[in-house]
Every structure is written in structure tokens, then in C-alpha cells.
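Table S5 (text form). Sequence records supplied for joint modeling of the two-component complex.
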Amino acid sequence: MSGTINFGIDLGTTNSLIAHAANGGIEIFKNPAGLKNTLPSVVAFRKERVLIGDKAKEYVEKDPHNVLAGFKRKMGTSESFFIPNIAGFKTPIELSALVLQELRTFIYTGESPASVVITIPASFDTVQSNATKQAGYEAGFKEVVLLQEPIAASLAFANKSADAGLNGQWLVYDLGGGTFDVALVKIVEEEMKVVDHEGDNFLGGLDFDALIVTQLIIPYLEQQFNIPGLAREMQSAKGTYNKLYYKLLYKAEEAKIALSSRQDTDIEFEFTDAAGDEHDVVFRVERSHFEAIIREKIDYSIRFIQKILERNRLGASDIREVVLVGGSTYIPLVRQLIRDELQLPVNFSVDPTTAVAEGAAWYAGGKTKRVADTPVAAGNVSAGTTAKGIASPLTVKTAYQKSSREKEEYFTAVVGNAPAGTTYRIVREDGGYDSGIKPATERISEMLYLLPNTQNVFTLKFYDAGQQLLNVAVPPISIVQGKFSIYGQPLPNDICLEVDDSEHRSTQLELIFEKNALLPIKKTITKTLSRSIAKGSSDQLIINVLEGSRYASPQSNLPIGIISIKGADLSTDLIKGSDIDLTIEISESRDITITAYISMLDQEYKHAFSPTSRTVNVDRVRDEVDYLLRVGQRNLDQLVRNENYESGTELQAAIERLQEMQKQLRRLSQDDVTDLKYQLDDEKRRLAEIVDRAGKDQRIMDLKEEYYLTKSSCQYFLSQVNNPSLQKRFDDCTRDEHEWLSYNSSGFIKRKMHELDILSWDIRKKDIGYVTHLYLHYAMKPDSEYSDIKKVNLLKKRGDEALERKVPEEILSVIYQLYELLINKNDDEIMKGTGISG
Amino acid sequence: MSQQLWIKMANLVFELEKKAARTESGPGLQRTIARMQQVLEEAGLLILNPLGETFSETRTDVEATLVGALHDKLSITEVLKPIVYLHEEGRKKLVQRGVVLAG
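The corresponding C-alpha cell record, covering 941 residues in total, follows.
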């Protein structure tokens, strides 16, 4: 266990952060809800629940009596805030403690630090500093070490710069969202000290956003759309355009950020005027305009620096540099004015929004702690014990509906023997819901907001009066929204699309809807054409939707909807590679609608299929029977070779029947009105199962053996390169291997082998030894195997030269071209396919 | 493509969809937007437009600006950025909170 504190907190007036020193670096912990580094230092008392951070901030303007911000300014005073919703008072210490406790929840590593470094402004006196310490203790820390913010920031910069350690004296200029501070820091007797400081608690980036709206956008709108008194109507809570004001503040902030890296940016928005007319506005803001309106504020901040310099009788040459802290220092004008007006070099090598927290963590990383951390027992700890190990009788019985079609679901629990001051909190695992902190009464209840069509997992946690986590074993609350409900029927089988498998020259199934998916269901996918279809030709594009197992062959699945687009019906040629949008929709009563849109034709084909009117495409069945015959014959030869006469007899009979069907199908017209095509299609599926089954056991065994060999050689190649990204591909490919191997699906195993082959190839194609060997293999083939000897000789010449240069990519390019010139590449059973790429 | 770029793309497609809805664009544009959304879905993003939904203080999937007087039944009246979840390793994770106005 490390003997240093390691955890540092920037307890800011506007925002707070928590950082951790580990492994020679600093990690800023992110807010699990919202993923930001920062937590607004705002606390809201909303009836029975306490919200801290972003959610609290939303209510700060509308409910100022119950929502508190900026309380850091009151630290160390006797002032308390009366909160109507709890009919009681809260001190700045208590409010700060809540913010600190919330920051503890950001620690995802499972640690529960007892010691922490907390930063304070340079202006804090002893009373204010002690008040901050007290807040730390109330938040559950046993040891609190304070560090002045400018020193923390300086440490962050010092640890970043190559010439470690700052010398002489320097300024820390901290311009945040709502506050401004500047401090003179220097090394006195080998210790970093804040010598002087100045500041304004009401200057920051929010002012700049408001200036963009009031100085630039509103005058433009007033002039352009002739709206008198627009400013008043926007800024008044009851004004006609109040909503537009808030929207523009958000857009202005985005524009301000963009202008830090660009010369101009567009603010796009729409609004409806009082007459009901809609307007789309694109307002261009140039950096020069933005700088002109904020110049006065920046000049004002610079005057504080001048004051410090004058007071300390310092000139520009006495200052080593100005360290920039706070998000608003990203603004180029800030950097430029400090440089130009004061002739001072600026240092912005550290992220100004996290510099203080980072510095606090650096400091904590070198500070020995005096108390031991509180262990947080994970897993199956006996219910109702505190982290301190003191027995607690707290019991919880939960009740809720495990599946729901509603957007919210009621949850309740009976809590037994909760000590006074116990609170609870429910959080959704994906970050989209947080109940806030609520008192744990005998019966607790909550409306849980659900994410649609998914399994929502919530955790319920209990805290003691000191906000320490209680180890109460409550199983996760799991509610499935939109599925497995009595309102919807699950699909009994997979629904797949038949697509071409160009690698194996056949077709395969691509899953559209998984078995047990809830009806009604709809999905749109975009596929590309695997071959061109000429206008007027007899060729056709087939969209075949089948029901069955995704692991079986397409021929043994039940076709439930098919659309064929024939060359004869086309207005122009369909080109290979063009896109086709397919929308497949199945209603609760199993009506299937397939819509195909071919973008190059701008034409839509739509067909509804109902379970009672089956559609059979005769040409398609003909192709499938031909294919089954070829595969069946090959399987039969194999069975005979293995002397497996029992299975061979069944297959022989199936082949004979397929030959008869082939003749029948040749005679059958596409628009035949009898039942024959349905009978033949049914029979084809039965025969497909026999063909599929025949010799399958042996084939599967051979395939599995081949798969393990492929896998093991891929593993070997991986072990030679140590590449995490390639390793991840391997892990992804072989995940759940045991499960899918047990399906005995030859198609699926082949696909996995193919993935591994590609991975092995991606590894080996960078290996000069292997590429050379491969080249020699093709270069030494007899001339008779190539179609264009002249070209082959030229390529060999280029290849030999490339070998000398030892560049794998160059040699590979020659290999590819040689391969293309081979007369016999690889031939297998070829099925014409659907025309849709897999 | 990095996750941040996918999210940026999701925001642009969302804006495009809003604009297309306002300007009564033809089916071609709508179809292209649907395809873009499909691509985003294939990249593992779940994009939600919470317009008209109930706003509550427990919804951490949105970042709201409250407009007008505060009352008990707030709803989302405008969506500046959609809610984005990322589906990864069988689990969903909020990667962008929706930016909304509620009133």
C-alpha cells in the first residue's frame, strides 16, 4: 500500500474536481453521470431529495432559495442559508461537505481515501481555511491537507515543463467561468509561497457568452427582423423571446470555444417571431468582433496584474512567466494582451481547467499520509455492516416489476432498522438516471426512468449520517423495458436475409431479427450489390428473407418473403457496388413487409407478404436445387470413400429425387398457377437438410480441427508481434468460442476461420521473411500457369528489385498482380447467389 | 474513427434531420438521413431525441436550461443536442447528455 495521500481536490467556487496521483502520472476522475471532469459546486434541496452538481445547477436560477451556489465565498463566516424545502439552515461548511462527498463518488477504483489534499484560494484567511478543513472532515476524510490554488497550479506547470522546478517569481492568472484571481508566487527559502494576490468574484467566461448575445446577436436580429424591444423580451423571464435567450447563450458558448482555434464561426439557430413566422438564422461571428466586445473585461483583469506588480515594485523582467489557469484563458486575446501589454511570457502547457486539481494531486502524491484508508469491502459482505465494521441491523426488501412497457417504473423497498440520518441513492448503470440523495425512511419509493428497449440496471446504495457507504448487500434492480412483455409476442425463430458469400462461392444467412425479438419490429439495413445486373437480361437480384436458424444453410430455412428484381424490368443497368436500402418490417400478426430502395435508380420496390400467401420464386428454387445436387454429389463421394454406406443410401435417394426435381423445375413456368412450386420448394428444404446432414458429423469434426489449427497458428503469429490492437481482434473473434462451436454450424465456423486467416495475414504481411517466401512461391511457378507471360516477366523483374529494397508492401503489390494473372485460381461449387453482398 | 468524431457526426445528423423536417424536404433527403442514422447505429450509437418527454430532476441523461416559471410538470420543449448512448461489450453507456430547454 502506498504511504502517500495521492488524492487532490480542487474545491472551486464554480466547479470542483478530484484527481489521483498514481504510477507517476495524474488521473482526473470523471463524473460518472455526464462524463465531465468537473462537478458544478451547486447543491439543490428539491423537496425530499438532495441534488449535487449539474442537476442542481439547472435549478439555480429558478429556485434560488432551495438551490445554493457560490457558497465558497461565505466559508468561514457565521452566515447560514435558510432552505425552505427542508425548513432548516445549512452552513457553507455543510454545503461544501456535500460537494466533497459527491466528488468521492467519482472514484471508480474502489478506493476510499481517508486523507486528501484540498485547495483553497490564496485569499483565504485562517478561519476560512479551517472551515474548509472542517468541510473535508464532514465529508468523511480523516486527514485534510490544504494547498493554495496558485501553488497547486504552479506545481502542475512545474511538473509538466522540461526544466523541472520553477525559479524566481511568477504570476498565476486564473480566469474561470465565473471568477477571476491573480497571484504572485515565488520560492522563499526553498518553499513555494503566494506573496500577493488580487481578484474579482464576478468576472469570467459566462460574462463573455452573455456579451456575444447582447452585443452581437440581439442588435443583428433587431435590425434584420425589425423586432422592437427584443433585448427586453429575451432577458425577461416572462418575455416572448426568453426561451431564445437561453438557447443563444448555449450557442454563444459553443461559438466562444470555436473562436479560440478559428478566425470565425457560424451560430445557426431558428426562431419563430411574434407573428408566427419561422426564421432560420446563420449568424457569422468573427474573432475580431468577439475580441472587441470582451476587450474591456480582459483589460480590467490585466489592471489587477499591474496593481500587484506596482505594489511589489516589480518590472516585467522580474517575472519569469505568467501561468494560465481556468477555461477562459483558452481565449487567444487573453494570452496576447498579457504578452503585449505587460511584456510577459505566458505558459499554457497544462490544461487550464484541470491544472489546480492536477497540482493538488501532484502534491498529494508526495505527501505522506498519517491515517490509514478506510477499506471498502467489495462483494458479498454481510448485510448491514458499516465500512468501519460496526454491526448494523439494516435490512432491505425490494419490490418492482421486472419488465415494463412504460417509460418509468415504480420501485419500492421496505428498509428495516435504518439508523437516524441514513440516506440512499439509486443510480442507473448507464449514467442516465440518478435519484439524488434521499432519506432512508421505513418505506422508500421511486419512479425509475427507463431507457427504451433495453435492460435497465440500477444500483441502490445506503449511506450513514456521515455519508459513509454502508455495506448493505442489495442485488441490482434490473428492469427490461419494452421486451418480454405480455403486450408483445416474441419471434420463435431467427429472421435472416440470404446474402452472397463470395469467399465460399455460395450464399449464407445474415441475421436481421434475433429469435425472441419482440413484435412488431422493423429494421433498415443498407447492402451493396455483389454483381452487376444488365438491363434486359434474364439475371435477377433476389431479396430473400428466411425464417429458421441463423446457423443453418439458407436452403433449409423457410422463405417468408422474397422480392426479385429482374434485368428485364430495369430501366438501366444495375452496377456492382451500388447501394440498396432494405427495410424489413414484421407486424404483431406476422405480416412481413419488405421495401427495397435502389439509390442509383431512385426506385422503390415494396411487397407485403402474409403468412397465408406464400411466395415462391421458381428461378430461385431451380438454382438452389442445382446447387444442392452438386454439394450432395460431393458429400456422397466422401461417404463412399469413408465406407459410410448407411448415410450414403439416404443421400443417394435424395440426390435421385433432386435430379427429378431439376427436370420438373425446368418444365415449370414462373407464373405456374398450380401448387407444384410450393410442393417442390417444401421438398427442396427437406432434401437440403439431408444433404446438409450427410457426412456433417465428419465434416464438422474436420472443420473444428482445422479451426483449432488456424487459431493456434494465429496465436503463434500474434506472440511474435505484441500488438494490443491485433490481440483485441483475436479476442473478439474467439469470444464465446465454446458456445458457438457447440452449434455445429459449418458456415459459422468457416466464417470464424476466415476472420482468423485475415488476422494472420494482417500480421504476416508485414514480415519481410514471409513476404519474400510468398513471392518466390509465385515467381517460381511454371510459365504455363500464367495467362500473360510478358507481363509476368516484367513483374518478376520488378519483384526481384523490390526484394533487394526489402519493402514488404512493394513486394506484396507484385504478388497480388502475379496472382491475378494465374489461369486457375481457386474453383469450387459456385452458386449464382442473390446479388447482395454479405 | 474516434468516439468523439462519431458523436460529432451524430449531432450533425440530428441537426440535419431537424432542418429537413422544417423545410418539408423530399423523400430522397429523408432516406439519406435515415441511412446516416443507420450507419451511426451500426457504429454502436443509440441516439435519442427527448423532445416532448417529461423532464425530471432525476434525468441525468439531459442537461437542461429551465425556461419560464418553475412548475411540477416540466417537459422538454426544445432539443439542441440529442442524448447519445454507446453500445459496447453488451452494455450501454451514456456518452453525451442531451442539451435541452425545459418548461
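Note: Residues 62 and 98 of chain B are 4 Å apart (CA to CA).
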